[in-house]
Amino acid sequence: MAEENIGFVGVGRMGGRMGRRLLDAGYRLTVYDTSNEAVKPLTDLGAQRAESPAAVASEAEIVLASLPTPPIVEAVALGAKGIIEGRRVKVFVDMSTTGATYARRVAEGLAAKGIVAVDAPVSGGISGAERGTVAVMVACPAEVFQRLKPILDHIGKVFHVGTQPGLGQTMKLLNNLLSATAMAISSEAVVMGVKAGLDAKMIIDVINSGSGRNTATQDKIPRCVIPRTFDFGFAIGLLNKDVRLCLQEADALGVPMVVGSAVRQLLSIATASEGADADMTELVKPVESWAGVQVGG
Question: At the top level of CATH, which class does the domain 5-164 belong to?
Answer without folding.
Answer: alpha beta
